[in-house]
Amino acid sequence: MLSILIPTYNYNPQPLVDVLNHQASTLGIDYEILVLNDASTMPIELTGCTTINMTKNVGRAKGRNILAARARYPYLLFLDSDSMPANDDFLKLYIDNARPDIVLAGGRIYHPQEGSLLTLYGAKERNPKEMQTYGKNRFPFLSPNFMIDAELFNIVHFDEKLTRYGHEDTIFGIELIRHGIAYSRFDNPVYHEHIESNEDYLQKVELAMKTFRSLYGRYPELLDRPIVRLSNIVPPVKLKFLRRELLSKPSLRLLQLYKLLYLKSLQ
User: Fold this and answer.
1) CA 216, 156, 34 angle in degrees (round to 5)?
2) CA 218 from chain center: how many Å?
3) How many CB atoms lie within 10 A of CB 243?
4) How far apart are CA 184 and CA 179, in angstroms?
5) What per-residue confidence (pLDDT) applies to 80?
6) pLDDT tens for residues 159-186?
7) Quick one: DSSP state of residue 236?
8) How far apart are alpha carbons 202 and 113 in whole angstroms?
9) Residue 107: which region, alpha, beta or left (left: phi > 0; alpha: psi -120 to 50)?
10) pLDDT for the residue numbered 125
11) Which residues of the chain have pLDDT under 70?
């Protein structure tokens, strides 16, 4: 019934695998857990799952496509390796709400951590309880925790041209819309367990914005995003001072401003 697909790079998902095995065994369903080790530079040895070891890093988009191609069951549940179900009924909620015509995204939440840019952003921007427009694509698609029918995934894959960090989930959401496939966010989150330093997180934000900017040509839908429209009218600003301020005094509003101005700097 259910193939659970976990790509990982330099992170050991054994605790996640153990929890998923326990929940699935309790439900008594047919299932499998596949983990794609994307050429990690640290040793990763796992039990209770099938591990696909890549000899060359293929990236987040292609890695998910490889997992889907290996899956045996009709429903595909994609989870990031640094996730942990927030409740004991996590798999049951997916099974009970499964529909072949709608992609379900359970969302991601964060343990409070004072001064963390990642948890500040996650708590305000990615709370599934704040965005539950069922069956209508009015919010960004997020890939750390979602289930899709295998036949739908055969129609819409992750874009393997995306080899740089960031926005493979944004583009997957656009492809769903292009193909008339509805996705719904419902309240079945995972915790994001690996909280990066503010410096590491901000570097990823910058990489993601560069990826985002590079996609305008192939995905003109991005041009209608508020951040793009605003970036077209704000004046260019030197970012070094703003970056230092953001790292010394983490603020969600300052982060949003930095992303806007950083995108402007790429034009």
Assistant:
1) 115
2) 21
3) 17
4) 15
5) 97
6) 999 888 889 999 999 999 999 999 988 8
7) P
8) 16
9) left
10) 53
11) 124-139
